[in-house]
Amino acid sequence: MIYIGTSGFSYDDWREVFYPGRLAKRDFLAFYSGCFTALELNSSYYAIPSPGLVRSLIQHTPAGF
Length: 65
Fold this sequence. Notes:
9% strand, 2 helices, two-stranded parallel ribbon, alpha+beta
């Protein structure tokens, strides 16, 4: 299996290029996970993600993401 994704998803300059212009930033991950099968958490380079962040990521992505 090959998983395709990017290094991050919450970039404002992706508006109008990837994300619809009026999409709320809080909805970026849900939109992103409908197009890609994986995501690199590049922030984990600086610190281990908190359990709350991981729970939020799980809540906003489909099973198997």
